[in-house]
């Protein structure tokens, strides 16, 4: 019988996975940057068979300023969990990001494509991957992108609010990504608990935020949401300057994980429709 421990259980993805967890902790309960605290938790809660690490310092722009905190959570945290998993004979799945890539290859990215993060956030996440595999080569790493779902702060929730409140919205149309619905990702993670290696997971169908916004407006209107936005205007990413460099193109090739899952991943628009239905209830 699996006894799963989900770290980062208060976050967007972790809050979905906690439904399937025997143990679910946030930073205040078990700080992944503190190996002794993790060991203490494991001693008090014996029998853990799997660890799913959703904990991260995920505020990309803030990571440029608060570098030590980002490094502790994103680089040292996975290493600590990898050490602990080995000590208690548990399997570990770690969630990583598309920000490990430079974003300059305009084709779907495979797991072994060159990595070269442009932001401190991306650099710490890449270091976390490397440190984890050094101490626990049997670990599984699932990179994902542009996560959305109910609860927590995310671009999709903010966009829905803007669509309902503003007549005109400006959205970038020169950065391509794959949106990922937390429910779809959580199902995949639970199927990957005993696998090893690096995988890419996201809902299929590349999109810019502008393209996503147009689709969301159409889907929201069809479901009966009040939509105030009459105009969605495409703009370059330079319209919204930020401290962190973001990949211009970080669309994943998901064929590797689809082979393991034994089924194709559904398109993001279908997942968006489900998210909107859930939100409307």
What does this protein look like?
It contains ten helices and ten strands. The protein is α/β, with parallel strands linked by helices and 281 residues long. It has a domain at 4-153 and 180-204 and 246-266: NAD(P)-binding Rossmann-like Domain (Rossmann fold, 3-Layer(aba) Sandwich), CATH 3.40.50.720. Strands 2-1-3-4-5-9 form a six-stranded parallel β-sheet. The protein has a two-stranded parallel sheet with strand order 6-8. α2 (35-44) packs across α4 (67-87) and α8 (209-222) crosses α10 (268-280).
Percent strand? 5-15%
Q: DSSP helix count? A: 10
Largest sheet: 6 strands, parallel
CATH topology description of the domain at 4-153 and 180-204 and 246-266 = Rossmann fold
pLDDT average, as an integer?
Answer: 96
CATH level-4 homologous superfamily of the domain at 4-153 and 180-204 and 246-266: NAD(P)-binding Rossmann-like Domain
Structural class: alpha/beta
> For the largest beta sheet, what order do the strands appear in spatially?
2-1-3-4-5-9
Care to give the gist of this entry?
Helix content is 40%, strand content 15%. With 281 residues, the protein is α/β, with parallel strands linked by helices. The strands form three sheets. A six-stranded parallel β-sheet has the order 2-1-3-4-5-9. Strands 6-8 form a two-stranded parallel ribbon.
């Amino acid at each position: 019988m699996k006894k799963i421990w989900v770290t980062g259980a208060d976050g967007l993805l972790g809050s979905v996975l906690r439904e399937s967890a025997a143990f679910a902790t946030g930073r205040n309960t078990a700080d992944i940057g503190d190996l002794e605290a993790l060991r203490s938790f494991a001693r008090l809660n014996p029998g853990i068979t799997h660890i799913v690490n959703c904990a991260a310092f995920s505020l990309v722009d803030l990571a440029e300023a608060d570098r030590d905190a980002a490094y502790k959570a994103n680089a040292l945290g996975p290493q600590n969990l990898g050490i602990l998993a080995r000590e208690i004979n548990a399997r570990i799945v770690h969630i990583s990001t598309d920000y490990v890539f430079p974003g300059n290859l305009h084709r779907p990215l495979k797991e072994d494509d060159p990595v070269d993060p442009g932001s401190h956030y991306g650099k710490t996440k890449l270091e976390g991957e490397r440190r984890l595999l050094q101490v626990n080569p049997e670990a599984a790493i699932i990179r994902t992108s542009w996560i959305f779902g109910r609860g927590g702060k995310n671009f999709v929730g903010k966009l829905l609010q803007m669509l309902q409140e503003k007549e005109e919205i400006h959205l970038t149309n020169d950065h391509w990504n794959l949106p990922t619905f937390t429910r779809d990702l959580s199902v995949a993670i639970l199927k990957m608990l005993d696998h090893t290696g690096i995988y890419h997971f996201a809902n299929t169908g590349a999109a810019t935020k502008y393209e996503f916004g147009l689709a969301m407006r159409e889907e929201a209107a069809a479901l009966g949401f009040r939509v105030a936005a009459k105009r969605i205007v495409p703009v370059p990413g330079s319209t919204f300057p930020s401290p962190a460099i973001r990949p211009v193109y970080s669309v994943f090739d998901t064929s590797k994980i689809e082979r393991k899952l034994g089924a194709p991943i559904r398109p993001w628009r279908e997942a968006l429709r489900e998210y909107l239905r859930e939100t409307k209830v």
